[in-house]
Structure formats: C-alpha cells, structure tokens
C-alpha cells in the first residue's frame, strides 16, 4: 500500500496551522490546558479518521 506523502504533509501543515490558531483563541478565551488538550486530541483523531478514509 503506497502512502500519499503529499496528503500527509498537507495534513501535518494543517495540524500546525490549527494548533497556532487554537493557541491564539485560547489566549483570548482564557481556556485552561485541559480544554486545549481535549480540543487537540479531538482534532488529531478527526484528522486521522479522515486520512484513513481517503486511503481506501
């Protein structure tokens, strides 16, 4: 099974962009670290699910 490296690189870029944006929003809304970690874990699971769906 060949991996789509372009898609993986794009996914990693989007994850970093999302983390940067979430960090700015977290500062404005004064989120705690638990809420921040919860949102990041949810995002990672969602992105992995989307990535595995596109591989089939």
What does this structure look like?
The chain is mostly helical and 56 residues long. The chain has one domain. The chain is built from two helices and no strands. α1 runs antiparallel to α2. It starts with a helix and ends with a helix. The relative contact order is 0.16. This is DUF3309 domain-containing protein. It comes from Sphaerisporangium flaviroseum. Keywords: Membrane, Transmembrane, Transmembrane helix.
Strand fraction band?
Answer: under 5%
Helix content: over 70%
Q: State the major sheet.
A: none
pLDDT below 50 for ≥5 consecutive residues: which ranges?
none
Transmembrane segments: 6-22, 34-52
Keywords: Membrane, Transmembrane, Transmembrane helix
Protein name: DUF3309 domain-containing protein
Outline the secondary-structure elements.
Elements: H1 5-29, H2 33-55
Helix pairs in contact: 1-2
Transmembrane segments: 6-22, 34-52
Protein name: DUF3309 domain-containing protein
Keywords: Membrane, Transmembrane, Transmembrane helix
Key terms:
56 residues, 0% strand, mainly alpha, 86% helix
What's a quick, concise take on this entry?
By secondary structure, this protein is mainly α.
